[in-house]
Design brief:
Helix content is 12%, strand content 38%. It is mostly beta strands. It has one domain (5-30, 69-475): Porin, CATH 2.40.160. The protein has a 16-stranded antiparallel beta barrel with strand order 1-2-3-4-5-6-7-8-9-12-13-14-15-16-17-18. Strands 10-11 form a two-stranded antiparallel sheet. A hairpin with a 4-residue loop joins β4 (191-203) and β5 (208-215). It is globular and about 60 Å long. The termini are far apart.
């Protein structure tokens, strides 16, 4: 018997509701398991009284909040809200990691209340020094804001927090003018947009992180910390075809989706992640500045992503070798326009991705950060009829502290290959080679001269394009 349209359209709501109920149940389990909650960051007033007869002693050094526990490898820049994974919301940072420092004590007061307000601005000025119809200059910039509120400080529900994000973009679409497959930067999203907004609960001594609300799969899946050293969207921040083939995978800006996700640390070396997201293309494209929260507008089903990550040297990145390897799947049972002209539609797809990075050389010996890290990535989509980039591969290397006097600088080289679908006539593949040097003048300021060379732009048999640019990133 065929179900009524309204009933069929409610399937996504039901699935999301089940996920949220599971999350709420987890909160109840955690709360019931703890008869009392003691805030580990609360001030111990038993030491406020000083005996005037007691012998004087030098004051004890205070440990900064950022040093209370090792920082996770996936969170090298927790003060920067741009494309930050939700698992990084609880990561502390020192005031020397932000331009505004402590705001004359205001940020410390807010942190005591569980409130963390972060902001960053990234801008890139680029031009094609060769190739293309004529030389074009383009500038794109993104101001990103993030507000995380630790509700355990306010309502004594341990591990519960809420996050709000937003962005304001300006500039030009240089990639559109050059007709490249991979955008030359990841910043072009003009206008203002609401970003991720979700409730989050950590359970079982922070081993399990559950999130529900307005989310983006790209902020959790198919990314590596080393990707932040690059400018081209084909590398940073994700394997580009996952969103290029299905815009509902992309993260903000411009759009987000209703969804639930879970990240579980099985051991200090192994982590599994899974997410269920709505697949409304209008939401993914940021309609109404990110306020189109409709579940269904001619879409059906859901986007599902899952990933298993292995950290051979554990999660912490405070010292020593760093490594991360991940394998994952993504699938969406929505209907998609067929190639090349979209005159018809076809059912969903399934895809796989593999990626990893490993530090292979440490000139200063073990337990040091300087050195060479290599990485590689691969993605495959099972349905070229609806996927413009069904096959993708990439590789590269990044050296931190190539010059001893510049231990925070990094020089990086990366290459990506995107095979265009066989259903797009007169195309083959686009390849991009990127070379960059990131000057880390401060922990909150990085200036990156960048060079890119693009073979067969858009996969067409056209002359190559050389792009030269400068990117500046500031965390406030």
């Amino acid at each position: 018997m065929k179900l009524p349209v309204r009933l069929r359209n409610a399937t996504s709501v039901a699935v999301l509701a089940v996920g949220i109920l599971v999350w709420i149940a987890g909160v109840c389990v955690e709360t019931a398991a703890q008869t009392s909650f003691v805030d580990p960051t609360a001030k111990d007033e038993s030491h406020d009284y000083t005996d005037p007869q007691a012998p004087s002693s030098p004051p004890r050094a205070q440990t900064p909040p950022a040093a209370t526990k090792p920082r996770r490898m996936e969170c090298p820049y927790p003060a920067n809200p741009n494309r930050r994974c939700s698992i990084c919301d609880g990561e502390h940072y020192d005031w020397d990691e932000v331009l505004a420092s402590d705001w004359t004590g205001l940020r410390s007061k807010m942190r005591e209340l569980g409130i963390s307000l972060t902001a960053s601005y990234t801008g890139a000025l680029q031009t094609n020094v060769s190739g293309g119809k004529h030389q074009i200059w383009g500038y794109a910039g993104q101001l990103v804001l993030g507000l995380n509120v630790d509700l355990s400080k306010l309502i004594r529900t341990r591990g519960l927090s809420v996050y709000f994000g937003g962005s304001w973009g300006t500039g030009d679409n240089l990639s559109g003018s050059l007709q490249t497959l991979f955008p030359v930067n990841s910043l072009y999203a003009p206008s203002y947009y609401l970003g991720q907004m979700y409730l989050q609960q950590t359970l079982f001594e922070d081993k399990l992180t559950l999130s529900g609300g307005r989310l983006a799969a790209a902020n959790t899946f198919a990314t590596l910390p080393i990707f932040s050293n690059y400018v081209n969207y084909g590398i940073n921040p994700n394997l580009y075809p996952l969103g290029g083939n299905d815009t509902t995978f992309f993260g903000p800006p411009t759009g987000t989706e209703w969804g639930v996700q879970a990240i579980y640390s099985v051991t200090p070396w192994v982590q599994i992640s899974a997410g269920l997201y709505n697949n409304n293309p209008n939401s993914a494209n940021g309609q109404n500045h990110g306020t189109d929260w409709t579940l269904q507008q001619s879409n059906k089903g859901a986007l599902v992503a899952a990933q298993v990550s292995w950290f051979p040297h554990k999660f912490a990145i405070d010292q020593g070798r760093q490594g991360m390897y991940a394998v994952g799947v993504v699938t969406d049972n929505n209907s998609f326009s067929t190639l090349p002209d979209g005159t018809a539609t076809s059912g969903g797809y399934a895809g796989v991705f593999v990626l990893g990075q490993e530090m292979v050389y440490q000139p200063d010996g073990p337990n040091t950060k300087r050195g060479l890290t290599v990485w590689g990535s691969f993605a495959y989509n099972s349905k070229p009829l609806i996927s413009p980039i069904p096959i993708f591969g990439g590789a590269g290397a990044s050296y931190l502290g190539l010059m001893r006097r510049r231990k925070k600088d990094s020089v990086s080289v990366g290459w990506v290959y995107g095979g265009v679908s066989q259903f797009v006539p007169d195309t083959s593949a686009e390849q991009v080679l990127e070379l960059s040097y990131s000057f880390a003048y401060r922990k909150y300021l990085a200036v990156t001269p960048d060079f890119q060379y693009i073979w067969k732009p858009g996969g067409h048999d056209k002359p190559g394009i050389a792009v030269l640019g400068l990117q500046v990133a500031v965390t406030f």
